[in-house]
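Help! Submission page says 'invalid entity' but I think these are all valid:
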Amino acid sequence: MSHWILIPILLPLFTGLALLIWSDRICVTRAISATSALALLAVDLLLLQRAAEGTISLYALGNWPPPFGIVLVLDRLAALMLVMTSVLALFVIWYAACDRDQPGDSLHPLIHFLLMGLNGAFLTGDIFNLFVFFEVLLLSSYALLLHGGGKERARAGFHYVVLNLAGSALFLIAVSLLYGVTGTLNMADMGQRIAQLDPADRPLAITGGLLLFAVFGLKAAVAPLYFWLPSAYAAAAGPVAALFAVMTKLGIYSMVRVYSLVFASEPGLLLPWLWPLALVTLAAGIVGVLAARELRRQVAYLVLVSVGTLLLGVAMNSQQALAASLYYLVHSTWICAALFILVDLMRQQRGLLEDTIESGPPLVQGTILGIFFFVACASVVGLPPTSGFVGKVNLMQAVSSTVEAVWVWPALLISGLLTITALSRSGTTIFWRTTGDVIAQSRAGVMPMVAVGGLLLISIVFSFAGDPVLSFMSDTAQQLADSTAYLEASSLFQPVERGDIR
Amino acid sequence: MEALVAIAIGVMTSCAIYLMLRARTFPVILGLTLLSYAVNLFIFVMGRLSTGNPAVIGSGETYPDPVPQALVLTAIVIGFAMTAFILVLALRARVELGNDHVDGNQEGRT
């Protein structure tokens, strides 16, 4: 049994603790934070390489064999999410280190505690442990959202915290309901027991499953539970908003994981809900993008559009569609983060206007920021040669019947058209319809530009590397559909003998 | 006994929902606390209700399910921490916004 699986949880934990202790010198904080993020990426790539071979590795905490103890499970999906998160974290920490952090503030430690929660949620194979890691990451996210202070953040933060506490209560009810009828908390074991459930207990299990859907829907900002997202993301500080791009995707990940593992024997549980909710989320996102009067709010609604698109992919319920959705998930996380960082940079060069979409002073670095904005918008809308294009084309190709095509194709194409209309209006207003003089002292250095440029470059590389990436995604979808492999891995598990530890 | 506990959980949850829909931050927090009490009781009950069973395994023929007790302890600790956090947040919002309305504006007064 290899201990490497534990590193993505322990490394951010100890980094966060170390950063709390040595917080007085900002250069030390930045060095520790960035080194840890790099090391995390290296470990995650190593784990990805191992998972890509197709084996599912288990790590039994405290040497308690499954299904009694808590297990960490590394399969292709978990490894993919880990790498996606650590790439994002690296760029966010890079950007935060460009003077977005203050000596003695807790931005860097909180980012690492959030990473610990995220990595734990991706790795765990135990549903109560999933709840605990959700709480770990939520508590860090509450503090991160309030980072910087101010009225807007206090208001949005209070809504966000109350909603998520209510969501946690629902999560606990659902988990204990499922425990009550199955007598286990291990997700793979729970799936097996639900398949052989007494028909009298089945309604309870279904209720638990649908309650969990409400919880994950709240995290993923699925309609009608999305109202917290635009104001929270628009109020958050630049690096924080960029990091939060992964939070909605965690909701989608949890849905895919829990429903493929626990409710594999109830395939019709979610489908009647997913289609309408996906379309409504997509429509709400588009209306928000068109109506937004500040750029940050517009990007927040773009996150909502990506959630709707992803749900459409999940609702199609085929391996090909799931593979395309996973590709789109990774793409949309990185590109939304890039947009949040970019908007934060643009905002600082516009004086009192900040990010309102009105004509104002020209930007000092209008050319380079304009090019970045153009590329980012092309990618988020889905124009070639960016990764958004590959993602959307694959989603469209994944339709399995004419009826699906009638719903999916117009939804994706019309949302793309309306998004491009709204974004080109914002772009022309801010970059071209300018009045007055530039605010010269607001020039940004090279480092923040590298953070945005790097994320955009990754988006383009991700599109040219589409073939190997997509074949990995379809392997991942296949592994998820085949739940026997997962059960085999847990039945083959051998506890470590006492002698081996010494 | 099941019916009594079920009614207790139901009454607590409905009071919690009523309080959470209030427009001031303090009742909302009280509602959240009450909701977490209801949830904790619910988790505990999921180990099935029984009387006269020894808590220690081996000291009798039967014993109560220990897992919900462990779960409820975790849930209590997390709920306690979250309540402390949201109280501080509500105080700070009161200072920043100048009132204790959940949306931060006095106009929506109830």
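Support: the input was valid. A stray whitespace character was the problem, and the output above is from the cleaned input. The first helix of chain A runs from residue 7 to 21.
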